[in-house]
Each structure stands twice: as C-alpha cells, then as structure tokens.
Amino acid sequence: MNTPYILEMRQVSKTYGSGHTAVKAVDGVDLLIKPEEIVLVMGPSGSGKTTLLSMAGLLLRPTEGKIWLNGQETTPLTERQLPALRLRSVGFVFQAYNLLGALTARENVGLVMHMAGRNGRSARTRAAELLTMLGLEHRLNHLPADLSGGEKQRVALARALANDPPLILADEPTGNLDSKIGREVMELLCCGLGRDQGRAIVIVTHDHRLRDIADRVLWLEDGRLSDDHRGNLESMASHQIGETTR
Amino acid sequence: MLKLAWRNLIHERTRLIISVGGVALAVLLIVVMNGIFAGGEKQATTYIKNQPAPLWVMQAGVENIHMASSILPADAVERVRSVPGVETAVGILYTGGGVEVGDTLVPSYLFGVDPDASFGGPWSLTKGTAAPAANEIVVDQAFAQRYRLALGDTVSVMGHDLVIAGLSKGTFGIAVNLTFVNKEALAQTLGVPSQSASYILVKPVSGTNLQNLADELRTALPQANVMTQTDFIASERDLIRQTGVDVIRAMSTVAYVIGLLVIGLTIYTATLERSREYGVLKAIGAKNPQLVRVVFTQAFAAAGLGYLLGVGLAYGTSVVVSRLFPDILILINPPQLLREVPALAFITALAALLPVGRVARLDPLVAFRA
Ligand SMILES: Nc1ncnc2c1ncn2[C@@H]1O[C@H](COP(=O)(O)OP(=O)(O)OP(=O)(O)O)[C@@H](O)[C@H]1O
Ligand SMILES: [Mg+2]
Question: Do A84 and B285 touch (CB under 8 A)?
C-alpha cells in the first residue's frame, strides 16, 4: 500500500483475437496516476483509448503486463473479486450516460451506494446531497428520459462519485454534449466535487479544448502512449477544424 | 436491487399487463376447471350424502349409482329387515334415463321411491309433496325454472306422462338431475317385481356397531354388496374424479404452457431491452447473482400478481356463473389453490432461465459503446 500511485499500469498490452486477425490495441503502455492528478488521454479513433481505460477499470484483462489499483495488484484477482473492487475504487463516466431508464435521478445514484452496502435511507440522503451540489436539486425525482443531456451526464457524475472512489475513469464524457455544456460538466468534475480527498481523474477525449483542465495530457497512437507532443495535438486540432469547415 | 426489479417491471405498462394477464388467465382456467369438477363431485354425491342411511346394500359388483345398474332379489328388503340391529331398511329403485319436456329429453337420474318410506326421496322441498303417487313426479325447482315448468304441469318419462307433484331443492346440477317417481310404477315400467330394489338404505338401531352390522348383512345376503355411506360417497366421488382427471390434467398442462410462454417471452424481451443497463451495472460493480436476482424477482413478481388476479377472477367467475347457470357449481377450495403454487413457481423459474442466462453472460464492456 506504500505506493505513491492510485493507478499503476506496467508494460500493459492487449491483443484482440489471434493469428492473422490479431489486433494489438494497446502495446506496452506504462501509465502512472498519482492522487489528485487529472490526466487527459487523447488520440485518433481506434488508437486503443477505450481498451486502455477498460483495463484500467478492471473490466478487461491485459494480455501482458500488470495493473495495480490503490497499491493492490489486480492480476491475481478472480472474476468474482473484481466487481466489488470496481464498485468501491473506480467511478465510471460514459459517453452514453448509461443511466437506468426506470429509476429516477436520485435512485440511479442511490443504487450504487446500496450495492456497496449503504442502507437505503442514508443512500437517499447522500444521493440528494450530491445531486444538489451538481445543481440538480429540481431534478431529483425525474426519470432520465425527462432530463437534458447535460443533466443526464451530471447524474452520471453523481453516480460515479457516490461511493467516493479514489479514481474516476471517463470515456468521451463530453462526446454527446455541445461544447458549452460539455465544458460545464467537466468543470464540475475537475474543479468542483470531483477533487475531494485526493481523487485522481483519467479522461479519454477527442476534445482538445479540455486540455487546460488537465495536469497532464498523454497521446495514444497505435496502442502506444507518449507524452503530449504539441505537434500531435495541434495537427489533430487542425484536422478536426478542417473536417468541420469542409 | 429489488426496487430496480420492481421499477423495471412497472416501467413497461403494456408488457406488465400482458405478462400478469397471461398468468392470470392460465390460473383462472385451471382454478375454474378444478372448481367445476369439484362442484360436479359434490353434486354427484349429494343423494347418498343426504339420506340418513349409514349402510347401503346393492347388487354384487356394483359400487356406484352414476353409470351403474343394480337390481337386488325381490326378497332382499325383507331379509335386510330381519337382520338384528336394523332399525329401518328402505328399498329404492334407480335407473338412469331422461325426462322429456316437450321435445327436449333431459338426462336424469330416476329414483323410484316408496311413498310410505321415511326416507329415500327428496330431502328438501320447496313446494308440493315428497311422495309421488303412480302418475306423479318430483323434480328440482331449478330444473322446473329452466324449462318453465310448474306444479301440475306434465312431463314424460319412458313413455308415461307424469304430473309434477313436488319441487325439490339441491337436486339439479350439470352432472346430475335427480327426479323422484313412484317406486311401484317404475318397477312396472322396468318389468321387475314391485318389491324389488336397486339399493337398500339401512338405518341401524342406535348404538349398533356399523362394521359388525355390515358383516351380518353380508352373511344374510351373500349375493349383495354392502357399503358404508362414507365408502359409498368416496367411491362415487372417485368415479367422477377419474372421468375428470384427464380433462383437468390436459387443460392444466395447456394453461401452464401458455403461462410459461407468456412469462418467458415478456421477461426475455424485457431483459433484452435492458441488457445494456445490466451491462452497465456489471461495469459499475454489480455481481452476477445480484442481477440474476433482479430478473428472477421480475418474473416471480409478474407471476405472483398474475396468480392473485387469476384467483380473484376465478372467485368472481364462480359467483357470476352460479347466478347465470344455477346447475353449474364451481367449488373453489383454498387447498387446491395452494396446490397450484409449486407448479406455477416451477414454470416461472423455468421461464426466467433463458433471460437469466443472457444477463449472466453479458459483457460489461457494452457500457463503453456509444
Ligand atoms: N472486442 C474487440 N475485438 C476485436 N478488436 C477490437 C475490440 N475492441 C476494440 N478492438 C480494436 O482495437 C482497436 C482499439 O479500439 P478502441 O475502441 O480501444 O479504440 P478507441 O481509441 O477507443 O477508438 P474511438 O476513439 O473510436 O473510441 C481498434 O482497432 C478496434 O477495432
Ligand atoms: Mg473509444
């Protein structure tokens, strides 16, 4: 436990399939995340970002390499042990929000606390608190279908934070939001609530405008991770602008 | 998690109605079928039950009234009377047949009763006499009502016109229509001596040991079968039950297969539709058994609601039917209702297996797909 890192990935690779059809989605990546760090992972489509994040979140086992979460080596853990570790140690934010359609905003947040063993009443109270801090006090009892995209993503943020995990993993969290709303949601996560208690945040995104929120920006290409080379990002930005103006 | 199951269930109204309704119909069908047969059993044994005769004597080999034909020797009644311990012995003639009302032949039990006997005839009367003379007949009041007959009207039995002289009660049902005619007249029609009896109803002197008396009757009439009232009722009930069992079993099977398909399909489609959500829950940290429980809970909640609704509808049906068709008796008894529970639970678990398998195999990585 006497490690300075919340997440430690050493020489991690992931190969999908085998033989002729094998795809090496992640190739010998070292990724070290310290408490309180906000790290952005950028890269072109298909470069392995989601694959990397899935392994960091213990949803996918690497083909090679080792992963430590909070100082605990995760490779020897069984499939039965992983869910409980994810539940308490990792908060996920997805591009598609992924709220449960039959539950209200408050119940969506309360459910994950309930799963972690918190009793119903205190889960309800805490869920309302979190949602209120995220500016959703008027939306507590709304179903996801009745919320805007930005509101849904804020509910998802509250859910990710509900069990106070030391690590938040977000895959394209602003992908379905317009840039202003996306920015607001990211600021709530990275400057507000999300920063409690040394929590670290890893965000995978195409959105170069989020760069200034991050402490570090990493570049993933062909499954290989490198430090932020300004050139990469610049060319990506101009590529995107070129695409949108075309 | 149980809340999630419940919310998922009621979130889709239409599907909930279909699954609950499907189960309810299956349960309704089963309960009403059973109820009709239970009612039939009760109606079929009502004559034996309502005679104050603890012992019954009949032709050897005969154990029933329904579907049976019994005739005892002409001196049998006298021989029974001479056995010590017998207080009263009443001989009755019985034949299955029909009562003609205009052009309609109504299948009926015809009891030839002695007008001077203290029992053997109708035990409950609403009008007229319980002791028909040679050209008279006693029919049930519900039967009379159904065919618009009144006291003094004429019906025909085996070619003889008979005047309705009495209206009885509790003697009409789908399985049975009991009518009472004069014994001597019936004997003449059947061409048997007037002292002949099909069954002899025996009332012992009080304090007599029934089994001993039955044995003595067997010795006195070696050619006859002697049964206690209780055994006779059971034997009659078993006969009706046997004819009903196959029908009930077939109908129950069909009903349960319908229930299985309805629950299976609705829960399966519900689970498919929500499979992304279940995948998300797995990603977040739900364990497989928790999700499996959610699916099972949905299936069992739907089945439970369907069961309650079905039982409610069955009781409603029995009331409505008894108003509209007084001859149909639907007897719903709670132990039988409980007996359906394990079968329904089994069906529900079976129906949930497929969706449960889907959920267990779900890949949590679906959460990352946009
Ligand atoms: N389950 C899978 N089976 C086979 N190949 C896969 C699988 N998942 C991803 N890949 C491949 O691995 C590579 C990396 O995919 P990944 O989804 O991690 O990229 P990404 O950087 O997240 O892309 P995007 O920006 O489009 O989301 C791609 O070539 C992809 O086709
Ligand atoms: Mg991706």
Answer: yes
